[in-house]
Amino acid sequence: MNLPDLTPYLGQITFGGLAGYAVGYALKKIGRLLAIGLGLLFITLQLLAQAGYIQVDWTRIQKDVEPLLDQPGLKSLWEGLLSTLTYNLPFGASFVGGLLLGLRAG
User: Fold this and answer.
1) Which DSSP string corresponds to 29-54?
2) What is the end-to-end Cα distance of the chain in Å, rounded?
């Protein structure tokens, strides 16, 4: 059984894995910061509403936000992102592996 020679692609595979790891790690950190920011915004809105300074129409907010969070929309966005990032196969394959490791480590 002859295995293919990966020597010409070694640089792409190494860089793809490292780049994927860095992007995954950064995405997880940015996601945490975004979650903290949204949580603090929610708490601030609730405190202002409770104090009588503002009135929040949560039903309207839910109606406006729900279409953005539907599963097919997020799935197609993720698939488009992966398609773009894995355009060059040796680089892309190692990038996805590194991305998953980075998301797990972050």
Assistant:
1) HHHHHHHHHHHHHHHHHHHHHHTTS-
2) 39
Per residue in 71-103, pLDDT tens?
A: 776 777 778 877 776 666 667 778 778 888 888
Query: Max Cα separation, the chain?
Result: 75
Cβ burial 13-49 (10 Å sphere, 16+ → b, else e):
beebbebbbebbbeeeeeeeeeeeeeeeeeeeeeeee
Give the orientation angle of helix 89-105 with respect to helix 71-85, to 10 degrees.
130
| HSE, side-chain direction, 13 A CA sphere, residue 80 | 6
In Å, how far from its chain's centre is CA 88?
A: 20
53 — phi, psi (to 5°)?
-80, -35
Which tokens hold the place of 16?
């793809």
With a threshold of 0.85, does the pTM exceed it?
no
